[in-house]
Amino acid sequence: MVITAANENTSYATPSTSDLLSWDSYYSLGFPVVADPGRAVDKLYDPNAMTRPTYVLIEPGGKIVKIGSSISNSDIEAVLPTAYP
User: Fold this and answer.
1) Burial of 38 by CB count in 10 Å (0-12 exposed, 13-18 middle, 19+ buried)?
2) Whole-angstrom Cα distance, residue 76 to residue 58?
3) Collapsed DSSP state (helix, strand, coil) of residue 2
4) Band of residue 1 on the pLDDT scale cut at 50, 70, 90
């Protein structure tokens, strides 16, 4: 599972659904983009705010595999339980 959490929009306000959909569309993301006002979720995975945006790759079973500013297709494929066609 990969998610990205956005804590603010370009106006420094909590992102709306429209903001999140625009972010997803602009970056051609294939995973959920969620609103994270106050960075509550972000702080769980990246407490020192080392990267922006923060992507978290979680393998089946819930183990965190990678935290960073990018997640590659090969990173994702490496944690899939079966080969991706």
Assistant:
1) exposed
2) 9
3) strand
4) low
